[in-house]
Amino acid sequence: MQTAAKSTLARLENLITADDTEKSIARKAQELLAEQGYPDTWYYNCPALVLLGSRSCVSISGREYEPRDEPVGISNLITIDLSPVHNKAWGDCARSFAIENGKVTKTPQLLEFKNGLGFLEQMHAQMLKLVRPQTTFGQLFDWANMRIRQNGFVNLDYRNNVGHSIATDRDQRQFIETNNTTLLADVPFFSFEPFIRLKGGKWGFKNEGIFYFNDQGVLEEL
User: What is the pLDDT of residues 131-156, one digit of tens each?
Assistant: First the structure.
């Protein structure tokens, strides 16, 4: 499931054009997931939540989300969040893509793009090294938000969390939020998905993956 989501995001890098919109990108993502046998979603009726341009900093539930017709254009930031489901197994994966000269680039020249994307990659790498089975949801939240603030960013999530457990029912999710004393090791899988903006900046960045503890108690990404 998660492999299909990652594969879809990788393929979209080469399919997005300056003429695309949230609607057309969401449609392409849904088609790519369906091609791999995953036409359904666990996230309300929103298999692909796409935000770009004037909405790159918007945090919205899939319950209310409707893709819009704003074009990608020459310079932009696109965040795509995928949530396929199959036999109650969830995928949950998001990436932000920098657009320069009308195309996705992995080596953006705009400093705000470099800083936002680079910081999230760094956070994920640090989290993998620091988190232990005895770490609680609340401790991970406190660490993540401290890092976000220290580096001049703000947390954009409308729930003010940075991830959640992977469940079989949306309403049974445990959130990575302050004062949640549940151990991360008490759930089979959890997502880590900080959604951030530089203080005073224009663009909102997200990077999401699913994580679990292996038999040796070491955190790995699915």
Answer: 999 999 999 999 999 999 999 999 99
Q: DSSP letter at 87?
A: T
Strands of 28-165 (E only): list them.
Answer: 48-52, 76-82, 85-86, 89-90, 93-100, 103-105, 153-155, 163-165
8 Å CB contact between 96 and 77 = yes
Q: What's this model's pTM, rounded to 2 decimal places? A: 0.96
Contact 34, 8 (CB under 8 A): no
Residue 102: DSSP 8-state: T
Dihedral of the alpha carbons of 181, 126, 42, 36, in degrees to the nearest 10: -150
Q: Is 36 exposed, middle or buried (0-12, 13-18, 19+ CB in 10 A)?
A: middle
Segment holding 212, helix H or strand E: strand 204-213
Is residue 182 within 8 A of residue 135, CB to CB? The reply is: no
- Residue 186: partners with Cβ closer than 8 Å, 6 or more residues away: none
Contact assessment for residue 210 and residue 175, using Cβ atoms and an 8 Å cutoff: no
Give the three-class secondary structure for 76. strand
Q: Between the CA of residue 129 and those of 41, 111, 139, 206, what are the distances in Å?
A: 31, 27, 14, 20
Rounded distance, CA 136 to CA 221, Å?
18
